[in-house]
Write a structure and sequence with these properties.
The chain is mostly helical and 482 residues long. It has a domain at 38-370: Orthogonal Bundle (Hydantoin permease), CATH 1.10.4160.10. Helices cover 74% and strands 0% of the residues. The longest helix is centred in the middle third of the chain and has 34 residues, at 259-292. It is globular and about 65 Å long.
Amino acid sequence: MSETSEAGAVREEATAESGARSWLWNKDLAAVPQEKRTWGTYNYTALWVAMSVNIPTYMLASGMIAGGMNWKQAIFTVFLGNLLVLIPMLLNAHAGARYGIPFPVFARASFGVLGANVPAILRALVACGWFGIQTWIGGQAINAMMIALVPAWADYQLGVWLCFGLFWLLNVAVILRGIHTIRFLQGISAPFLLLIGLALLGWAWTQAGGFGPMLSTPSKFQTFGEFFSFFIPSLTAVVGFWATVALNIPDFTRYARSQRAQVMGQALGLPATMTFYSFIGVAVTSATVIIFGEALWDPVVVLSKLGHPLAVLVAMAALLIATLNVNVAANIVSPANDFSNLYPRRISFKMGGLITCVLGLVMQPWKLLESHGTYIFGWLVGYSSLLGPIAGVMIADYFVIRKKIIAVEDLYRRDGFYEFTRGTNWRAIAALGAGIGVALVGLVVPALRPLYDYAWFVGFGVAFLVYLALMRGAEGQRTPSS
């Protein structure tokens, strides 16, 4: 072992010992030691393939078709949005890979050891909503499988609710097995899910008579102004779609072998897979107009109409695997850690995951999926106004204020460098509030509606600038012991 490696091991051991004595520490929030950082480029590529190949991705693109875009406009919007969200994704991922810390602990550097609970809970509540959505979709897939096997099941009024409960219990089982189950699921399912996507596209191509008829639906927008007014909130929705993981990506990159592994894996996995699967959603939704006489934006409904029971069973099984993968990876890992951050000594990762499951039910996901408008412009754009400002504060703090230098041991103790004022950095809270307030004002002042349509971008920019102004104004007043 080199001197550098020995020094790093000594620092990690010292951090673990000091953290273990603090109520701000538990084994799930602890910094991952170097020897346990085993995720390579393939793991991160597979992670994004598995998380991107899912029904909400399909609905995101198909909802744009239902809203009036043609296939080229919808695919361009998805591709551009994912390129944009990849930037904050990789910026926040850096700290996880460098220091081995999860998102709620990373947030302590900017918001304070107690103040970090504010962004952590905001992120957790959004994840609970997503967990509920994915679980509802999974339940619908199981219900469709039951109908294919036993047609009389369609007449059973409680059938969809029982299937919803069954899929909910399946997610709970994965939580109880722990974080390492995720790596196993991603590795075995990613290639399989891409093949299923190609098979679905091939089916639509055959039934509709080729890509010509499938992609012939013109845009409903007559002028550029009409298109632009729909494009902007749609682009914001695409960014908002992964604005969640753009915050908690350290929960995964803390296991990275190197910065290069996580950067390459994410750059290869996210934009390409999202665009590919969105194209499937666009093409198949367009094909349903020819095949069924109406645009069906919900793939569960499309697949339930395949006719042959065996085809329905295979298709729904694939959707279940995809939904389980993305639900655990994207919607359980982060809130489980976030809730654990509230009281690390009493709330473990598993307990935090169970809290997520319960709150996911309370948020009534069936209402969030009532229509493509509610899903895209209400849910996705709406919560992006909360997450954009958090990203703005954290990125400004890590790269501009701290120059990527963090005293990890102080993240796990009171009266350290990140104590600020009684555990909270009120400048970060003020910047967060400013970003959220400016983004949401468009909901109550019609003339300022563009601020809401650009919610993530507006919130990020305002919080970034306000935080820098407040922190630089405080320079010289803080010392590592303050």
